[in-house]
Amino acid sequence: MGSKSVVDMIEASSGAHFSGFHMDGSLGARSNGQTTTSASGIYNEPFVIGVAGGAASGKTTVCDMIIQQLHDQRVVLVNQDSFYFNLTEEELKRVHEYNFDHPDAFDNDQLLSAMEKLRHGQAVDIPKYDFKSYKSDVSPARRVNPSDVIILEGILIFHDPRIRELMNMKIFVDTDADVRLARRIRRDTGEKGRDIATVLDQYSKFVKPAFDDFILPTKKYADIIIPRGGDNHVAIDLIVQHIRTKLGQHDLCKIYPNLYVIQSTFQIRGMHTLIRDSQTTKHDFVFYADRLIRLVVEHGLGHLPFTEKQVITPTGSVYTGVDFCKRLCGVSVVRSGESMENALRACCKGIKIGKILIHREGDNGQNLIYEKLPKDIADRHVLLLDPILGTGNSAVQAISLLVRKGVPEPNIIFLNLISAPQGVHVVCKKFPRIKIVTSEIETGLNEDFRVVPGMGEFGDRYFGTDDDDQPMVAVTAAAKNGS
Ligand SMILES: Nc1ncnc2c1ncn2[C@@H]1O[C@H](COP(=O)(O)OP(=O)(O)O)[C@@H](O)[C@H]1O
Ligand SMILES: Nc1ccn([C@@H]2O[C@H](COP(=O)(O)O)[C@@H](O)[C@H]2O)c(=O)n1
Ligand SMILES: [Mg+2]
Predict the structure, then answer these.
(1) What's the family (predicted)?
(2) Is the pTM of this model over 0.80?
């Protein structure tokens, strides 16, 4: 499935002219001068970081620390070790004479082809290298999905200019030779089960000369040199800060101050991982979707106005707190939005919840075909519920209705689980004073205007109607009965 430009898709989907945002700089500054801006200001290509340095200098440790700190981003680590050539029978017999530290030991063409796919949004299978058997086909390959950040790590990752060209940032981990040797002895005798004489022999015959001849000369390509590897927390913090700026992840929030993306944690990423996985069972999908919905609802409620309130605690002390906003209601966009009603009811006792049904006609038309709203909705703050903000067409229909009913724009909070940038642009441009609360911003829309990476047809997965070929008929009937 190919991808259209954001402008094309929005114009095709909404029929309205989309002027879009054209932002420069940021992520795009590659070593070859290429930039990767798109009309939405969201970068589609991943940010590629190269991490080189001598063996046992602490490259993997530094990468792990960066990944840990970038926990709210999709980051993958691709190790150059995975691309060692398999040894022939002859080479295996005389493995102690094989130079694993020479540039020719790596299949760079295979690495480049994997990177090409990842950069273009395709998943790849990366071989798992086994240091004991010297083979990369003993265990099944690791499936790596396209990500926001790709870290390429390896002793000679800066050696091939074609691989260097891919990198937005190059880091060289600079650790003293004696420290590297000491760590290598400990690692190779422990993890790789080698004896110390073999380790020392390999070091003097191949590792040290290759470091001097091939690895050290690539230090000049580095943008950042980290002395002391993983011990250098200051350098790692600065690198992470720089990556965050370059990713421009919060650019949408900067453009639209009324867009709130809830603070990501590993728990939240874990829940997203589960509900986005096409293999997840209905039961788990509902369980984790419910957990995420609850977080979004709680966050959304935090944006309601409040009044100060003082109470007397059981110790007789005065506690100065706040009183909940009383005049509020929910409105769910049938049918997916109904999945969010329970969480809202659980948070707001006795809350009134209205419904709106919007039916998609053809590729781009959206028609409002049913509504049942509280009569006094104009006097209430409205929490609009729909788990997915895609093109923004349904949202615009729903919000337009609320505004027609007299709800002031600032009194509308649109709650969803995932938002496509296109939808955010469309909604925020038309209704700049509403608030949107979401848990993740998506990459974009595909040719069929479906959110990617997305989570599929939310309503079907949540209500278990994946196999139902006429779900809308039943839903329309249910909605008309006011259920
Ligand atoms: N700062 C450090 N202090 C102590 N041990 C370290 C440090 N950094 C790395 N190590 C250890 O040294 C060995 C090599 O580190 P690693 O990060 O795997 O290096 P590389 O990927 O460059 O070969 C590992 O066993 C690791 O646990
Ligand atoms: N079968 C192999 C393959 C590689 N090596 C050594 O690994 C080092 C590179 O890995 P790092 O994690 O340290 O970057 C390199 O020095 C190779 O000599 C090996 O010993 N056996
Ligand atoms: Mg390593």
Answers:
(1) In the N-terminal section; belongs to the uridine kinase family. Belongs to the uridine kinase family.
(2) no
DSSP letters for 150-177: EEEE-TTTTTSHHHHTT-SEEEEEE--H
Phi, psi of 376 (to 5 degrees): -95, 30
Task: Give the model's pLDDT for residue 75.
Answer: 87
CB 163, CB 152: distance < 8 Å: yes
C-beta of 207 in contact with ligand 2 (< 6 A): yes
User: Which protein residues touch ligand 1 with a CB less than 6 Å away?
Assistant: 53, 55-61, 183, 187, 229-231
Bridge partners (DSSP) of residue 414 are 384, 436
Count helices and strands (H / E) in the chain: 17, 21
Atom of ligand 2 nearest to the CA of 153: 14
Cα 173 from Cα 223, distance rounded (Å): 11
Look at 24 and 4; give whichever has higher pLDDT.
4
Of 381, 384, 378, the C-alpha closest to 356 is: 384
Give bridge partners of residue 413 from the DSSP assignment.
383, 435
Which ligand 2 atom sits nearest the alpha carbon of residue 194? 20
Q: Residue 79 pairs with which residues in a beta bridge? A: 153
Are 14 and 391 within 8 A, CB to CB? Answer: yes
Backbone angles phi, psi at 19, to 5 degrees: -75, -30
CA nearest neighbour of 414 among 391, 398, 393: 398
259 pairs with which residues across the strands?
Answer: 436
Ligand nearest to the CA of 92: 2
CA–CA gap between residue 72 and residue 59 (Å, rounded):
21
The pLDDT score that the predictor gives to residue 7 is: 30
Helix intervals (H) in 389-449: 393-404, 421-430
Q: Which atom of ligand 2 is nearest to the CA of 53?
A: 14
Mean pLDDT of the chain: 84
